[in-house]
Amino acid sequence: MLKISASERIHYGRVMKLTGPIILQNLLSAAVNSADVVMLNFVGQAHISAVSLATQYATVLFMILYGLGTGVTMLSAQYFGKGEMRAVDAVEGIALRFSVSVTMLFAACALLIPEYMMRAFTPDPELILLGASYLRNVAAAYLCWGLTEIYLATLRSIGRVGISTALNGTAFTLNILLNAVFIFGLFGAPKLGAAGVALATSISRVAELILALIVSARSKDVRLKLSYMFIRSKVLFRDFLRMALPATLNDVSWGLAFSMYSVIIGQFLGTDMVAANSFTSLVRNFGTVLCFSVASGGGILLGQLLGDGQMKEAEQAASALMKLTVLFGAIGGLIVLACMPAALRFASMTETGRGYLKGMLWINTYYVMGQAVNTTLIAGVFRAGGDSRFGFICDTIDMWLYAVPLGFLAAAALKLPPLWVYFLLCTDEFVKWPWVIGHYRSKKWLRNITRENVVES
């Protein structure tokens, strides 16, 4: 059994208070992805596979925005703990400069060259056609996402996770309803299949941005204002680059490498594996909800404690966070196991595909523990103290020098059976455990990163 000290128990309530709304938010996000797969299951395997591949670009964009949001959280949580709200506004503005630029680039590519984007993942003409229609319709969502994600990250960094969850929840609920309308052609709407999923996403993201602007107009502290992009602070800009850039590059590097897994599966292992991977990712998302939420909520709490100079309290909170992570990692594995019968019964795919799905789900019953520990430490604990460089180096080496080459070697050169290739890809999280856990025990992340007089007149 895990031994829990009296001081650690104090932090469990604080962590769960922040984590609870984030769990709900992540569950809703997973529900949207589930709805996509469930509804497209009635349309056909090709639509599921096309959307699965096309959304890899959204995954990469999410990693970029998540990295920028992490930079916001790292700095804003500590400056909020210190009581300097003008610095929080400046950090939000710096992040908005980057997010607006990146989302405009993604939207332009999705509108102008969607076929080329799909060819990177598959040679199948049908999947290219369906995926291209998805990308064209999702371009507007990219633009709105860049604004709302930074604003919601700022809200979360000061502990206002409930508002963030309410906005996300409204958008996700609308997305699910519109998915049904545009996929099946309800209420006189055209039946759009894969393109309908993208259109529903774009409309819900526009609605989320409108709600964010309404909340911002009524807020007395954190607001969504493009004028924040022009707040001058050379010190904060350098700190943001020094801390957020490695975090962003870390998430992008990890996201691109994870997308390469889809390239390996799509190019070498066949459409049955692509479809099975879609369902597997869906179930794994539910299995990791608790773990990833604890990492987010715990990182916010740690940042506020460190910014307020409470080093001993932060160390104790990190210890409590790790024990929660181990517990929730085990629960996540059981969730994957519990979902297996329903996933196998429901999945509309060939018998070969179902066989792949069963094997992949068994692998994920323990894989979620690897993700849980690494995410909590790298994206939660380390980044709370401004230590994003370690995670970038660790993940880049692990993914690009180990997992991706191993996957290509196993699939293209050795031509191993598909499930063996997938098993080898899923060793990536456990390979880096010794270094990640060792860095946690070194306490090099335990730092106050705030400065004095950081905003220029």
Keywords:
457 residues; 83% helix
Total separate domains: 1
Uncertain regions spanning at least 5 consecutive residues: none
The percentage helix is over 70%
Report the count of strand segments.
0
Helix and strand string, N-terminal first?
HHHHHHHHHHHHHHHH
- Give the biggest beta sheet: none
Q: Indicate the radius of gyration in whole angstroms.
A: 21 Å
In short:
This protein has helices spanning about 5-40, 45-80, 85-110, 115-120, 125-155, 160-185, 195-220, 235-270, 270-285, 290-305, 310-345, 350-385, 390-415, 420-425, 430, 435-440.
Explain what this protein looks like in three dimensions.
This protein has 457 residues and is mostly helical. It has one domain (8-442). The protein is built from 16 helices and no strands. The chain is globular. The N and C termini lie far apart (55 Å).
Question: Which helices and strands, and how do they pair?
Answer:
Layout: H1 6-41, H2 45-82, H3 85-112, H4 114-119, H5 125-157, H6 161-184, H7 194-218, H8 234-269, H9 271-287, H10 289-307, H11 311-346, H12 351-384, H13 389-413, H14 418-425, H15 428-431, H16 433-442
